[in-house]
């Protein structure tokens, strides 16, 4: 399955939007946090997990999905949310804790819910997986179209919930795809130090489903492999487990000193930053010009700037609204 | 001989905990540490800093993100002669591993008729106030304290943190050791200065199950634990300016619970306010009030509680700050009692 030029352009554009969004968040996050770095301060308080470098995992998968398909994501959700079509203004406002946010400010960056495009995420490692299986089950039981995709980190693949959910999806042959974003780190602990086998995709054989490993953080390769898995799921052939080799270009969260990273690792990863790599590919394959690129970059900045401005300009909710929405 | 006064040595709770664990590891080779990012990183909240360097990867083990496995493993190791100190990074994550905790760790001693012991410490961070939302900010004190078979303690300052950690490691029973993030002395989480106090270098125990009067007073008793103590102390200072003498009682332990200390203090003051960052209903605040009522302590006014409303903890600062306990809420509670 090969992406069309339009699809490649879409992927590149959403990689740009995602990266520019993270860059904007990164900058604003530091407002009010210096000289003393205190997470509680500034327009964006709390933890902040940036997705820089992991954009290919978002676009290569979501290029195959429609709004009706369900995506569950993790504590590092922005890139996936953007590729899934989550309302960017609402997401930005949520991250700022504003009343116009997707959840009126109750959830924040680790709890992005946009039912309009069937996107959700959770800050608990491994808990993206069960809900995706359940959404897939629900589609089958209701004879409704659409599939489910669960994202998780390679660290989360050592969580019991992952194994239980995969087994159940395998037994029931559900239309669900498990996407492991292998950035080789779970906070400060390397994949090698925490995982008994080299490839999590090999674990698929225990659960009666195909397992695929995609090296190189390459959106095109991801598009191809995931396309086949999506076809399988849509045609009732059951689940697939896919592990994507990707890179975490930022710290685990903002404020992470990253002393645990081997010297030179980050520099090496920066050299194969998927965004310039994708740009070069477009130039090579589709004679993409600098002007074409400048236009797309400007468009992407426009989308991000608009969302950030919306978030900044929005009001905070009234404190007492905290009591609302526990039940409806 | 003149006694040399020990030089004042102010430590954060994080450093006091790490020092306590290190001292026990030096004297007892059965003590070892497991958890996520507790090795080279020294713990996300700093309470294992330096241990990896001193004791190495065999005794200071970074685990996979597999809480059910490593807490369950701690139960097994503890019953086989080891003394594990394991970390559940945020208490909120108990959801993925509670069976190992409350059905195994907490019950094996009893079910074995006391023939099997589980001498382990489960240390875990609690609390919010910095906009981390409701999967990373809870206290859930009562959730643990409700279930028989595990001691549950939570220091409010570095002196107690060291002494209670040493006592917890030496205790033949499982101990849940809760530390509040805002009291850790990690700058990035804000720092409660009152939690940073003198800590003797020598090893010492602070007995588990003994409350302490942090500030004596005569007009009202403010009972708290961990962050609640600091809200209480701040309120007491403001009340003092208004001519009210408030006594602040730091429970330090929820299990065992020092009911006598509560009864003694309220017998003296006749008024009770209980402060807890854990949820309002079915919690520690209700338990303390019931203790006083059941004991028939004469009261000058109905007891009050200042606790977290029964809502998931919201992210946005206006909502979260509004929902947290505060000195102002304690003073409002006191004023309400005055009206009676
Ligand atoms: C059950 C649970 N345990 C621990 C954590 C703390 N934690 C947050 S992110 C993280 C690392 C996750 O690693 P990985 O799954 O590889 O995702 P990445 O951060 O690399 O995107 C950990 C341990 C958590 N949120 N939930
Ligand atoms: Mg990872």
Structure commentary:
The complex is a heterodimer of chains A (328) and B (340). Chain A is of the alpha/beta class and 328 residues long. Chain A contains eleven helices and eight strands. Chain A has helices at 5-30, 55-62, 78-84, 88-96, 129-141, 160-172, 191-194, 219-234, 265-271, 274-286, 290-313, and strands at residues 70-73, 119-121, 148-153, 176-182, 185-186, 189-190, 211-214, 240-245. In chain A, strands 2-1-3-4-8-7 form a six-stranded parallel beta sheet, with helices on both faces. In chain A, strands 5-6 form a two-stranded antiparallel ribbon. Chain A starts with a helix and ends in a 15-residue tail after the last helix. The model of chain A has no long low-confidence stretch (mean pLDDT 98). In chain B, helix 10 links the parallel strand 13 (272-279) and strand 14 (304-308). In chain B, helix 8 (227-241) packs across helix 12. Chains A and B meet through loops of A and helix 3 and helix 11 of B. The complex binds thiamine diphosphate (TPP) and magnesium ion.
Give a topology summary.
The complex is a heterodimer of chains A (328) and B (340).
Chain A: H1 5-30, H2 55-62, E1 70-73, H3 78-84, H4 88-96, E2 119-121, H5 129-141, E3 148-153, H6 160-172, E4 176-182, E5 185-186, E6 189-190, H7 191-194, E7 211-214, H8 219-234, E8 240-245, H9 265-271, H10 274-286, H11 290-313
Parallel strand pairs in A: 1-2, 1-3, 3-4, 4-8, 7-8
Antiparallel strand pairs in A: 5-6
Helix pairs in contact in A: 1-2, 1-3, 1-10, 1-11, 2-3, 2-8, 4-11, 5-6
Chain B: E1 10-11, H1 13-27, E2 31-35, H2 51-59, E3 60-62, H3 67-78, E4 83-90, H4 98-105, H5 108-111, E5 121-126, H6 141-145, E6 151-153, H7 158-170, E7 175-180, E8 197-198, E9 212-215, E10 220-224, H8 227-241, E11 246-250, E12 253-255, H9 259-269, E13 272-279, H10 284-294, E14 304-308, H11 317-323, H12 327-339
Parallel strand pairs in B: 2-3, 2-4, 4-5, 5-7, 6-7, 10-11, 10-13, 13-14
Antiparallel strand pairs in B: 1-8, 6-12, 9-11
Helix pairs in contact in B: 1-7, 3-4, 8-12
Bound molecules: thiamine diphosphate and magnesium ion.
Magnesium ion (MG) binds at residues 153-155, 183, 185-186 of chain A.
């Amino acid at each position: 399955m090969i992406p069309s030029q339009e699809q490649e352009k879409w992927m590149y554009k959403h990689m740009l939007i995602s990266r520019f969004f993270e860059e904007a968040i990164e900058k604003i996050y530091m407002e009010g946090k210096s000289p003393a770095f205190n997470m509680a301060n500034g327009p964006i308080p709390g933890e902040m997990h940036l997705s820089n470098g992991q954009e290919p995992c978002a676009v290569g998968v979501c290029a195959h999905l429609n709004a009706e398909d369900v995506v569950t994501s993790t504590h590092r959700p922005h890139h996936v949310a953007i590729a899934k079509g989550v309302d960017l203004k609402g997401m930005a406002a949520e991250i700022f804790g504003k009343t116009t946010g997707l959840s009126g400010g109750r959830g924040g960056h680790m709890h992005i819910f946009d039912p309009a495009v069937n996107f959700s995420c959770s800050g608990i490692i491994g808990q993206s997986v069960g809900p995706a299986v359940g959404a897939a089950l629900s589609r089958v039981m209701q004879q409704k179209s659409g599939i489910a995709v669960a994202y998780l980190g390679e660290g989360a693949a050592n969580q019991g919930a992952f194994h239980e959910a995969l087994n159940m999806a395998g037994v029931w042959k559900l239309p669900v795809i498990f996407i492991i974003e292998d950035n080789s780190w779970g906070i400060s602990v390397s994949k090698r130090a925490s995982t008994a086998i080299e490839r999590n995709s090999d674990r698929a054989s225990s659960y009666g489903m195909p397992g695929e490993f995609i090296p190189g953080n390459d959106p095109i390769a991801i598009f191809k492999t995931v396309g086949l898995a999506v076809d399988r799921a849509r045609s009732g052939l059951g689940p697939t487990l896919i592990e994507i080799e990707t890179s975490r270009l930022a710290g685990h969260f903002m404020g992470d000193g990253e002393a645990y990273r081997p010297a030179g690792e980050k520099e090496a990863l920066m050299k194969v930053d998927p965004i310039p790599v994708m740009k070069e590919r477009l130039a090579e394959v589709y004679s993409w010009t600098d002007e074409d690129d400048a236009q797309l970059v400007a468009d992407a900045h426009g989308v991000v700037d608009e969302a950030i401005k919306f978030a900044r300009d929005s009001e905070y909710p009234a404190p007492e609204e905290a009591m609302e929405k526990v039940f409806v | 001989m003149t006694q040399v006064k020990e030089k004042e040595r102010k430590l954060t709770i994080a450093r006091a905990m790490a020092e306590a664990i290190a001292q026990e590891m030096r004297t007892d080779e059965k003590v070892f540490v497991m958890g996520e990012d507790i090795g080279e990183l020294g713990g996300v909240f700093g309470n294992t800093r330096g241990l990896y360097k001193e004791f190495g990867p065999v005794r200071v083990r970074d685990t996979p993100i597999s809480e059910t496995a490593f807490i369950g493993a701690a139960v097994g190791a503890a019953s086989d002669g080891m003394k594990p100190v394991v970390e559940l990074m945020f208490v909120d994550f108990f959801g993925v591993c509670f069976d190992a905790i409350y059905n195994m760790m907490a019950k094996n001693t009893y079910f074995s008729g006391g023939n099997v012991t589980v001498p382990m410490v489960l240390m875990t961070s609690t609390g919010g106030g910095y906009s981390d939302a409701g999967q990373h900010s809870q206290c859930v004190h009562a959730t643990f304290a409700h279930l028989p078979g595990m001691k549950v303690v939570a220091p409010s300052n570095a002196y107690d943190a060291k002494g209670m950690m040493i006592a917890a490691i030496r205790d033949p029973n499982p101990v849940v050791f809760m530390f509040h993030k805002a009291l850790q002395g990690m700058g990035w989480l804000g720092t409660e200065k009152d939690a940073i106090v003198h800590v003797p270098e020598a090893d010492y125990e602070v007995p588990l199950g003994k409350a302490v009067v942090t500030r004596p007073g005569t007009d009202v008793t403010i009972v708290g634990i961990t962050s609640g103590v600091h809200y209480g102390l701040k309120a007491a200072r403001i009340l003092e300016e208004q001519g009210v003498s408030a006594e602040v009682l730091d429970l330090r332990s929820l299990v065992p619970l020092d009911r006598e200390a509560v009864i003694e203090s309220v017998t003296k003051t006749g008024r009770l306010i209980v402060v807890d960052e854990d949820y309002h209903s079915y919690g520690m605040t209700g338990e303390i009030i019931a203790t006083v009522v059941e004991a028939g302590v004469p009261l000058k006014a109905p007891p009050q509680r200042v606790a977290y409303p029964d809502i998931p903890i919201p992210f946005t600062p206006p909502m979260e700050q509004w929902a947290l306990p505060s000195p102002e809420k304690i003073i409002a509670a006191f004023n309400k009692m005055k009206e009676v």
